[in-house]
Design brief:
By secondary structure, this protein is an alpha+beta fold. It contains four helices and ten strands. The protein has helices at about 15-30, 65-75, 85-90, 125-135, and strands at about 5, 10, 45-50, 55, 60, 80-85, 100-105, 115-120, 140-145, 150-155. The strands form four sheets. The protein has a four-stranded mixed beta sheet, with helices on both faces. The N and C termini lie far apart (about 60 Å).
């Protein structure tokens, strides 16, 4: 434990894999239904992990490594963990199946964009169900006579549901006059 900052903390680890393991363990513990910190209101923390140069000054640490970790923590979803690509590269395969790419992000005070990954907290059963759902989805295409491209997909059973994604224009129903 390096220092406490209000309701946050800066913690330094000698192993990047153990740092990620600790962040995941804390977030999972806070998700448990019998967690005493769930009442009266659920506590949700954010975590950010990065590896980089730090400067020790007494009992404190400073530097780009700390600044980037703090920016990642601020950008994480409540209950989430964001890590830099450097963390992902150093942990190897041990946690790779739990990380999903979030793309490049820019942060205040950091000159270069940082490639960010998030920890996926889905259990394996739910993750497999999502993969099966995606695999079952078949996208089909149609081009109308007037050149409009349409794409649709069919997934599952039951009554058909149609969702049209528009460009901000309002369509009219048959029983409405345009402009109503």
């Amino acid at each position: 434990m390096v220092k406490l900052l209000g309701d946050g903390a800066i913690v330094e680890f000698r192993s990047v894999a153990r740092a990620l393991e600790a962040a995941i363990a804390v977030q999972r513990a806070l998700r448990e239904p019998d967690n005493p910190y769930q009442k009266p209101q659920r506590i949700m923390l954010r975590a950010g992990l990065h590896v980089g140069d730090v400067v020790a000054d007494g009992d404190d640490i400073f530097g780009d490594g700390v600044n980037i970790a703090v920016r990642l923590q601020s950008a994480a979803e409540p209950g989430g963990v964001l890590v830099s690509r450097m963390v992902s590269d150093l942990i190897g395969a041990e946690f790779s199946n739990q990380l999903q790419g979030e793309g490049l992000r820019t942060f205040k005070g950091i000159t270069q964009p940082i490639e960010v990954l998030s920890v996926d907290f889905l259990d394996e059963t739910e993750a497999q169900a999502r993969k099966d759902f995606e695999a079952a989805q078949k996208v089909q295409y149609y081009r109308t006579d007037d050149g409009v491209n349409l794409a649709w997909s069919v997934v599952g059973g039951g009554s058909p549901v149609v969702k049209a994604l528009g460009g901000g224009r309002r369509s009219t129903r048959d029983d409405e006059e345009p402009g109503q």
